[in-house]
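Researcher: Please translate sequence to structure tokens.
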Amino acid sequence: MKLYNSLSRKIEEFNPVNPSNVTMYTCGPTVYDFQHIGNLRTATLMDLLNRVLKANKYNVKSVMNITDVEDKIEKRAAELGVTVDEITSKYEKIYMEQLAMLNISADLYPHATEHIAEQIALILELEKKGYTYKTDYGIYFDTSKDSDYGKLGNTFNSDKGQSRIELTEGKRQVEDFALWKFVQSGETRQKTWDSPWGVGFPGWHIECSAMSMKSLTNAFAKPTSTFGVDVGLTATDFTTIDIHIGGDDLKEIHHENELAQTESITGKTFINYWVHGAMLNVDETKMSKSLGNFITMQTVLDKGFEPMALRYFYYSAHYRSELKFSWEGLKAATVALQNLSTILTTPGVVETTPGVVWEKYQQMFLEKLNDDLNVPQALAVLFNMIKDENIKIDEKKKIVAFAFNILGLSPINNDVKLEDLPEKVAELIQKREALRKSKDFLEADKIRDTIKDIGYEILDGEELKVRKV
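Model: Translation complete:
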């Protein structure tokens, strides 16, 4: 199995630290608002890689964090006059429901607010090793002390990178980042904690280091006391994590800072394989809340699309390629998924014993996925198999079922009850049936095409079925 590693900037053979226990961490949502479907593309990447690893007989522990302390959350709570907990619980619940709709799951969802003691312990360790300094605004990581800083993002000094860096008085270098922030005079916050440096709250980057180390390594395994709280930090017990997943927009700042602070603490490689998914675009522009051009899952549902169609749409491009969203593209994904789903509902018994055809296509399908998760090519293998008239339907059903499982897809059925059809469509169907009975198939086919142009497909058989397309 091969993966593109953002750190080495090349495709590498996947060699886990412990083949019996692959560790994988994904940067999850900040729960202050609805997540847009670009965020869900990253979550789908995590789930796909998890499934492919398991198809290759690896045991996997998958962790996705929940960021529930952040300035945006405080701002939203203040605007609405509610508690931070009300905001975070509401949007986390919605996000988890949407993951379930897309057949996405991780083994563990740690929360930033549940790991404050661990974050303080990490900052104290950095302070002890000379990597920090204090300003009126907080405790900062001194990037000049890390000779490797910039090895992942590589563009942190670019105009694009600097535009996303917090500019705060007292910073020694523009790239330096906050580990712990102080509550400023006149500032009102609901979520603050005491610390060795004063009342405040953690920086964004230190949260992920604490949660990944606690969830996936033994760095916090031994009971010790840090600032009156038992967290058990023993940096020498840290074991390199196999995979870290996130959107491409996190690479040059957030993940760079995660890497720098963690390796400065442990003296060991933090992550072996950095996997970044490309952006979902709208009109050639990255989908984002800040630009106001985002689309939510609820909008997709309100327009009558199935969640599985969205997951299939993500597969229309390789995960490292930017993908342009359009409703026409989502409609095409729906039709393609319906066609695959129809294979599973076609009469025919699935053989319990795999045959030569099954073994051949299973291997071909996996080979494409094992080549840096190349889903478009894997789907091409699947459709070529379906077109092969020499393959029996029972074998086709088994191969499609295997593909659905590894891709995290479920069959969709857009059959429409005859009594629920628009009046015009119902009348055209009656006219077509009359033409078929009189054996005027040419005119009947013309009406069938007219019905399809309206948005419905006729499925002839023992029982007439109509499907929305």
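Researcher: Any highlights?
Model: Residues 37-55 form the longest helix (19 residues).
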